[in-house]
TrEMBL record:
It comes from the Bacteria. It comes from Prauserella sediminis. This is Sarcosine oxidase. Its EC number is 1.5.3.1. The lineage of its organism: Bacteria, Bacillati, Actinomycetota, Actinomycetes, Pseudonocardiales. Keywords: FAD, Flavoprotein, Oxidoreductase. Residues 8-358 form the FAD dependent oxidoreductase domain. InterPro entries: FAD-dep_OxRdtase, FAD/NAD-bd_sf, MTOX. NCBIfam families: PRK11259.1 (NF008425). GO terms for molecular function: flavin adenine dinucleotide binding; sarcosine oxidase activity.
Length: 380
């Protein structure tokens, strides 16, 4: 019988890994988390201060049950940790009433039944004059939308797990995971540990740890974020300027209100690009990225200065179908995945963390996450 270092290991303590650690610590007193740097380090997909939270979501995958679960779990994390994580001041989705975005969003809303309000161009101008809408633009208001404080969420989850007895191995980049007859060996090339089960949640760095049948279906990608100054910060507080996603013609942008009293985060949507590796993403914006960002801000807003005062780039692991990999790894019996969120996972991280933890510990099957099963790529 192999001597075990714990019941379950979580490799990567970023957006989803930290949540899996938190949830696993509720179910087991023998949980170990491995982090290549430190939890919430700024070079991971956690970087950038905030992520959007929305219940109204245009996507071919059935995310609404997971978003509903995540909303409750974020509040549970706040109760467990005493930290504020989720701020719900509503959110706007803006676009052409007859374009590809708004009709698809409304179709998704009708399917899932999410609470919402459709606003005319005139109503948007009256309520949210910071937005400059085009002639055919309308908006969908989601009263349950808001933003998550990424650093606070990850650190709260890790601290709460540690309070329950979970152990953390920092500054440890796991280089291999190997299933044994009665366990799983986790190695950093120098040290080895053995666990009953392991969850791979390394974000952009997960690719090399996946079974070979999955590696052709994933790739690391670069995501960049930009911040712009505002002329009157009082007009861009969360209660007056909620989160937004806008797709108008060939222009698109998403962002959050001012949290520092001087800037808003406003970033071009859908601009991720494949990267050579998660460790080498270029943190500097290109001239084209800068120019398009400035022009879009100038076209979309009143009262926002079209000058980038802060920018950064982060890696994430993308799948070829943009659905995550959550569940048992194909061809294995003790290795579970919680990765491949393709730049859109943080809003549901608490829910996917619970799914991963409970699957790994044989607690629940979670049919609501069946679409994310890695088995869909099992044939290679």
């Amino acid at each position: 019988m192999t001597k075990m270092d714990g019941q379950v290991a979580i490799v990567g303590l970023g957006s989803v890994g930290s949540m899996a650690l938190w949830q696993a610590s509720r179910l087991s007193s023998s949980v170990v988390g491995f982090e290549a740097a430190a939890p919430a380090h700024p070079r991971s997909a956690v970087g950038g201060d905030t992520r959007l939270f929305r219940m109204t979501y245009r996507d071919p995958h059935p995310y609404y049950p997971l978003l509903t679960a995540a909303q409750g779990l974020w509040r549970e994390l706040e109760k467990d940790s005493g930290e504020s994580v989720l701020y719900q001041h509503g959110g706007l989705s803006i676009g052409d009433a007859n374009g590809p975005y708004i009709p698809a969003l409304l179709k998704s809303i009708r399917t899932c039944g999410a609470t919402h309000e459709v606003l005319t161009r005139r109503q948007v101008a009256e309520r949210y004059p910071q937005h400059t809408l085009y002639e055919n633009d309308i908006a969908v208001f989601d009263p349950n939308a808001g933003f998550l404080r990424t650093d606070s969420a990850v650190l709260a989850a890790v601290r709460t797990a540690q309070d329950r007895g979970a152990r953390i191995v920092r500054d440890c980049r796991v280089s291999s995971i190997r299933e044994l007859r009665d366990g799983v060996e986790v190695s950093d090339g120098t040290r080895n540990w053995t666990f009953e089960r392991v969850i791979i949640a390394g974000g952009g760095w997960s690719g090399a740890l996946l079974p070979s049948t999955l590696r052709t279906h994933v790739y690391p990608a670069r995501i960049y974020l930009t911040w712009f100054p505002v002329a009157d910060p009082a007009q861009f507080t969360p209660d007056r300027f909620p989160i937004f996603v806008r797709i108008s013609g060939d222009q698109s942008m998403y962002g959050t209100p001012s949290l520092d009293g001087s800037t808003i985060k406003a970033t071009l949507d859908g601009r991720s690009q494949p990267a050579e590796s998660a460790s080498t993403v270029d943190r500097t914006l290109t001239r084209a990225e800068t120019e398009e960002s400035r022009k879009t801000v100038g076209d979309f807003f009143s009262g926002v200065v079209a000058e980038i005062v802060r920018s950064d780039s982060y890696p994430d692991l993308y799948t070829t179908d943009r659905a995550p990999l959550v569940g048992p790894a194909p061809g294995t019996s003790r290795t579970f995945l919680a990765t491949g969120f393709s730049g859109a996972g943080f809003k549901m991280a608490a829910a996917f963390g619970r799914v991963a933890a409970e699957q790994a510990l044989d607690i629940a099957p979670h049919p609501e996450a069946a679409f994310a099963s890695p088995d869909r790529f099992a044939s290679g």
